[in-house]
Amino acid sequence: MTTDDTERERRMSGATIWLTGLPSAGKTTIARALAARLSGEGHRVEVLDGDEVREFLSAGLGFSRADRDTNVRRIGFVAQLLAAHGVKVLVPVIAPYADSREAVRKHHQQHGTGYLEVHVATPVEVCSARDVKGLYAKQAAGELSGLTGVDDPYEVPADPDLRIEAHAQTVEESAGALHALLAGRGLA
Ligand SMILES: Nc1ncnc2c1ncn2[C@@H]1O[C@H](COP(=O)(O)OP(=O)(O)OP(=O)(O)O)[C@@H](O)[C@H]1O
Ligand SMILES: [Mg+2]
Fold first, then answer.
1. Nearest CA to ligand 1 atom 14
2. Is 30 helix (H, G, I), strand (E, B) or coil?
3. Which end of the chain has a smaller Cβ tally under 10 Å, C or N?
C-alpha cells in the first residue's frame, strides 16, 4: 500500500470520540478545535454537541438519571451510524454515568465501529470559576439543583483512552493530544 493509500484510509475511517467531563471543562472548545484541524486535513467530521442535541434529538428530556441515560444512549446511537459511514464523530457531552458510557462503547463494539473515550479532567474549582453558562452560580444561589459534579454525580472514567488535564495546557495542546491519540489508532 502506498503512503497515499494509507492516508486515504485514515481519512475514510469513521469513529466516535466521546469527550466526557464536567460543565465548563472545555469539552466543546476542544472538540471544535479538533474538528477544525481534522476537517482541514480532509476528514469528514461531525460534532454532536450536548446543547444542540438536547434541542432536537433529546427534546423533552430532563436531567434525571434516567433522562441523562436516555440522552447519552440516543447520541451514541446516532454517533455510531455516522461513524459507520466514515465520519469522525466528536461528542462533547457530559455523560456523567459510567454505565451509560459503557453501553455506548458496547453498542459501537457490537457494530465493529471505533469508539474512544476521552476524559476532559478539568477540576470542578476551575470549571466553576469559568462558569460559561452561569450554572455554578445559579446552583450556589439555590436557583438550580442537580448540577453535575456539584450536587449531582459525576462518575470519573476509570480507564479512558485518554485523560486530558485540560486546565494545565492550551486548547491547541489538548486538541493536539487528541489528534495524536487518533493517529496512534490509525485514524488521523
Ligand atoms: N485550556 C483550556 N482548554 C479548554 N477550554 C479553556 C481552556 N482555557 C480556558 N478555556 C475556556 O473554558 C471554557 C470552556 O467552555 P466549554 O463550553 O468548552 O465547556 P464544556 O465542557 O463544553 O461545558 P458544557 O458541559 O457546559 O457544555 C471556554 O470559554 C474556553 O474558552
Ligand atoms: Mg459544551
1. 26
2. helix
3. N
